[in-house]
Design brief:
single chain, TIM Barrel, eight-stranded parallel barrel, seven-stranded antiparallel sheet, 12 helices, FA58C, glycosidase, Glyco_hydro_29_N
């Protein structure tokens, strides 16, 4: 009898497995899936450039130049949390090469400057990276690190007259034809950062590591990306690695906070291969070889580092940036640099808070609720509980509407509980099982008479469609026109007000 029961249970498992849609080609890893859901977080460019009014640190000033008058990493983290940002990524070392943490790899670190020595003498921490990580934990936001591969301080092609004969006159090992191994230095710095600990001895968890490929030098340095990846994977398995075109996330192809309407989460090249141009990075490659979604790095000001003569962008400009990034399935990494006090400027913070207020006022007007009547042209194996169209309204990321495997087009209709003025539509695909949809329409209906209000191509993690003008409707219809596998729709939402 026990064998019979086990056999029946095994058959049930097989049946269940057969009814579940199979993953389509490439799918996100668990860390990538969690990363998609972050959507919007801060970039923090802070270092010697903040005090020298530079962007790339060519002046090679001594560590004494780093002198914030009122450094407060708690203010950073609280500001970002209040602004609705999910985390921050700090420039632990930018192109200038000066380290913001207590490293054993170089004398060119803020710890060798007067500001740090005074802090330590007063019994305070001078490790800005660890301080920022602790503040992020305190305010419940994620923490990530930028570690520049290019290092002006070690590059023989970059003049350093301010450092000649000083403690910071270090061997010029950057470059394939120099004496020394820069890859070993970078690997040691990376290892230090991915193994940093809080004061209580627990390891600092990183959600993203930025491996920027930018360089302003003719020096050729072949990076040992494979070694760097192994160090990160071994010590921070949950961290997404950002690079020009991989490993886990790619550049969007510009630094202006926008992308084109069609966006595929896959590409067909790795970080080690010839780089795509900007257009291909924006659109991605449909059915590509690697799940490498795009991230848009943009700035609240004109520069990456704080400059006294710059002002933050307008709230409307940030709103447009958000809609053309997050609204097109691309994460937005918005740079908000501290000033020479070591704090986020008040005007920047006020802009971020006003941006959140405007964003929330727009997005928090959902019209579609779980109790509405929803129907579909087809439901997978007739299982409405598991795959029915009502799943698109239940607010759960793990549920979705699905049809049978041989059906790649279909219709879903939602009947509202009155007549509404609709000005935006939000849709999400169940990307945990791959990106499938390549063409769809959203129609607004009044008493059964429909007109198209959205004509879309790619769907992916999330699409926010802002209509050119509001439309009246007491029903909505989604038409899937093209999909490379049976479409899996996780969410449909409309924004607006009741008439």
């Amino acid at each position: 009898m026990l064998r019979l029961i086990n056999a029946v249970a095994w058959i049930a498992i097989i049946v269940t497995a057969q009814s579940t849609p199979q993953p389509y080609l490439r799918t996100p890893s668990s860390r990538q899936l969690a990363w998609h859901q972050l959507e919007y977080y801060a970039f923090v460019h802070f270092g010697p450039n903040t005090f020298t009014n530079e962007e790339w640190g060519r002046s090679q000033s001594t560590p004494d130049v780093f002198n914030p008058t009122a450094l407060d990493t708690d203010q950073w983290a609280k500001s970002f949390a209040d602004a609705g940002m999910a985390g921050m990524i700090l420039t632990a070392k930018h192109h200038d090469g000066m380290a913001l943490w207590d490293t054993n790899t170089t004398t060119y670190k803020i710890g060798d400057g007067k500001w740090a020595k005074d802090r330590i003498a007063a019994g305070l921490s001078a490790d800005v990276v660890r301080m920022a990580a602790a503040s992020a934990l305190k305010y419940d936001i994620n923490f990530g690190i930028y570690l520049s591969p290019w290092d002006i301080h070690r590059d023989p092609a970059m003049p350093k007259p301010n450092l000649t004969g000083t403690l910071y006159d270090e061997p010029q090992i950057f470059g394939d034809n120099t004496t020394g191994d820069y890859n070993d230095l970078y690997a040691r710095q990376l290892t230090e950062l991915v193994t940093l600990q809080y004061d209580n001895g627990s390891r600092i968890s990183l959600f993203e590591l930025w491996l920027d490929g930018a360089s302003g030098s003719d020096t050729v340095q072949t990076f040992d990306w494979a070694k760097f990846r192994d160090i990160i994977r071994e010590n921070q398995p949950g961290a997404v690695m950002w690079g020009h075109q991989g490993v886990d996330a790619r550049w969007v192809g510009n630094e202006d906070g926008y992308t084109v309407p069609t966006n595929w989460h896959t590409i067909s090249r790795t970080q080690d291969q010839t780089h795509y141009e900007g257009d291909k990075l924006q659109t991605g490659v449909r059915d590509g070889l690697y799940w490498t979604p795009a991230e848009s790095d943009a700035r609240i000001r004109d520069g990456w580092f704080w400059h006294a003569n710059e002002k933050p962008k307008s709230v409307n400009a940030l709103m447009q940036m958000y809609m053309e990034c997050v609204g097109r399935s691309v994460n937005l990494l918005l740079d908000v640099p501290p000033d020479t006090t070591g704090q986020i400027p008040e005007e920047d913070l006020e802009t971020l808070l006003q941006f959140r207020e405007q964003r929330d006022a727009f997005l928090k007007r959902p019209l579609l609720t779980p109790d509405l009547d929803v129907s579909a042209s087809s439901v997978r194996e007739g299982d409405s509980k598991q795959y029915g169209p009502a799943n698109v309204l239940d607010g759960r990321t793990e549920t979705y509407w699905a049809m049978n495997d041989n059906e790649t087009t279909g219709v879903l209709e939602i009947r509202l509980d009155g007549t509404y003025s609709i000005d935006a539509v939000i849709m999400q695909e169940q990307i945990a099982l791959g990106q499938r949809v390549g063409g769809y329409l959203i129609d607004a209906g009044v008493d059964g008479a429909y007109r198209t209000i959205v004509n879309g191509t790619s769907l992916g993690y999330k699409r926010i469609w802002i209509l050119n003008s509001s439309v009246e409707a007491n029903s909505l219809r989604l038409q899937i026109l093209q999909s490379n596998a049976t479409p899996l729709i996780s969410s449909v939402q409309a924004l607006g007000v009741k008439q």
